């Protein structure tokens, strides 16, 4: 099992050290950040780029709660807190909406309980990490392996006419491609889950991880795509009225 980079956040310094000690004993984790307040934690995460988060929920910090931190970062997270039961619905929503691994451990706990819970969580994280590629057919080129995070959005191929079931797929690292006979209704069969690819319009499906912001005035979202001249450029995509309330959740 590959070593995971972990970032820890808890407003109780003693508990923070215990969590760090227990994690390091497991031998499959490299603790890259430990903080007791949210603002410093976000800065540390930006610099260290962890694979997983270990978060307290109530931080005694008016800046952000642990749940708000998790929603902002959208990384696999295990909540280690004394009041996890109060947040079960939010945890379920976090897991469902962002398609990330989410688990919890209620304080107080023994080292054995910590070890068993974290070991199961790591197995889930590694499993999903291995599923982060899809195989797509681009015209005559079959089964091209594509990283999910490299896909920015898909759109109906207007150049082929309304009767065509072709789509265009846009990336952040390579030029766009044509998907032949590709149906939005069967995206999940290809591994493009609805929890990650958001419908913003009948003709657009957008990777939620690439939504930069939503402009209420123009009713558009902005993403960056790899352009025909070989560099990342901003692109505005229209948001239909029916989907605006959903898109606002991903405003940054």
TrEMBL record:
The modification 4-aspartylphosphate is found at residue 56. CDD domains: REC. GO terms for molecular function: DNA binding. One of its GO terms (biological process) is phosphorelay signal transduction system. Residues 5-122 form the Response regulatory domain. Keywords: Phosphoprotein. InterPro entries: CheY-like_superfamily, LytTR_DNA-bd_dom, Sig_transdc_resp-reg_receiver. This is Response regulatory domain-containing protein.
